[in-house]
Design a protein that fits this description.
With 316 residues, this protein is α+β, with helices and mostly antiparallel strands. It has two domains: 12-137, Chitinase A, domain 3 (Roll), CATH 3.10.50.40; 171-314, Chitinase A, domain 3. The protein contains five helices and 14 strands. The N and C termini lie close together (11 Å).
């Protein structure tokens, strides 16, 4: 479900200026086309400083991603040489500047030595447009600003869920962490709790459309997802919301993005996406004892945990 994307903010006036015949564009040593709109005020970014950027990526008439849907990005200014990416022009920028970078599909393939993804053709122009909203001389100042932005993003995600639940008059309760849980049947068996191994039937839906993206209900060959609560085998929203059920319980989890995939692209290939899961807890048992590890203690710490292949919809 992961996809690699560049993120830049779309500035209509800049795009209009370069839409025809690459008007007014400059070129870096690597051949990267770019244009900067600046009032010339303030100091140019120095190596080691950090830019805060709002952004969008566009190819043909399709916007692949826009930070209007989520968080801004933070980038370090450095001397990167002619690498045919937007990093080349960051040392030219000031706070408040707007810019557009145009990469050509065949040049990306030729210079990087890698195949283009299917949605980009060799003759395509990949337009990366952005605006520098702030400039930080130190990483500590960047971290403080990012914490503020993260909190704002979390509030936005939670507010969207709250409005949805109120609009459709859903009888749901909010957990301390932020998952909204609609309990249709609590169940009458053992309680879901830390250290318990549970088996779950689910149907995952996009928010707010309700479009199903994956399900193991009435699906040939599919089995219940099985995991141990509290071991971070699933996204936090599952671990959090399912604790309100017992064996046999049924309900729906409305999960904010920060308890799902957060900044990672989710089932619809978009970051910062809330999700909905219809769930049924079909079993609750004591977790099996860990099997003896064949490696010496000094190596145990670095052995990766094997993930359950049936947990695809809810893995972090």
């Amino acid at each position: 479900m992961k996809t690699n994307k560049a993120y830049f903010f779309i500035i209509p006036v800049i795009l209009a200026a370069v839409a025809c015949n690459n008007s007014g564009l400059k070129k870096t040593k690597s051949g990267l086309l770019y244009k900067i709109i600046s009032d010339g005020k303030g100091e140019t970014a120095k190596r080691g400083q950090f830019l805060k950027i709002n952004f969008t990526q566009k190819v043909r008439d399709s916007v692949l991603y826009s930070s209007a849907e989520g968080m801004p990005t933070y980038v370090r200014v450095d001397s990167v040489g002619p690498n045919y990416t937007a990093l080349e022009i960051f040392p030219f920028l000031r706070k408040g500047d707007s810019a557009v970078v145009i990469q050509l599909g065949d040049s990306i393939e030729r210079k990087s030595g890698q195949m283009l993804p299917p949605f980009i053709k060799k003759r395509d122009k990949i337009i990366l447009a952005f605006r520098v909203t702030d400039l930080f001389p130190t990483e500590d100042l960047l971290k403080k600003d990012r914490e503020i932005e993260i909190e704002k993003e979390h509030q936005k995600e939670s507010e969207a869920l709250k409005n949805y639940i109120e609009r459709y008059k859903i009888n749901a309760q909010k957990t301390e962490k932020g998952t909204y849980v609609e309990i249709k049947s609590e169940g009458d068996g053992p309680k879901v709790d830390t250290g318990k191994q549970i088996s779950v039937l689910y149907t995952g839906k996009l928010f707010p459309s309700g479009k199903v993206f994956e399900s193991n209900v009435n699906t040939p060959g599919a089995k219940p997802v099985q995991f141990v609560v509290g071991r971070r085998g699933m996204i936090q929203g599952w671990d959090d919301g399912l604790r309100l059920f017992r064996k046999g319980g049924k309900g729906t989890l409305y999960i904010p993005a920060y308890l799902a995939y957060d900044a990672q692209p989710g089932p619809d290939n978009k970051p910062f996406a809330n999700l909905i899961f219809d769930v049924e807890v079909v079993d609750v048992t004591d977790a099996p004892k860990p099997s003896p590890h064949p490696f010496p203690p000094t190596l145990q710490k670095i052995q990766p945990l094997k993930s359950d292949s049936t947990a695809k919809p809810a893995k972090k």
